[in-house]
Amino acid sequence: MAEPAGPRRIIAFTPQQSAAAARVPTGAATSEPRLLDRVRIAVRTRHYSRRTEKAYVAWTRRFVLFHGKRHPAQLGASEVEAFLSSLATEGQVAASTQNQALAAIVFLYREVLDLELPQLAEVVRAKRPLRLPTVLRRDDVARVLAQMSGTPWLVSLLQYGAGLRLLECLRLRVKDIDFAGHLVRVREGKGNRDRVAILPAVVRDALRVHLAEVKAQHERDLAEGGGFVELPTAIARKFPNAAREWGWQWVFPATRVYRDRESREVRRHHLHETVLQRAVKAAVAAAGLSVRAICHTFRHSLATHLLEDGYDIRTVHELLGHRDVTTTMIDTPVLNRGPSGVRSPADRLEGMLGLGGSGRRGEGERGGASGATWPGEPGELSGLLDNADSRGAEERGNRVWSRNLGREGEWRHVDIQTGTTRRGATNAGLPN
Question: Which residue range forms the structural domain that includes residue 314?
Answer without folding.
Answer: 138-341
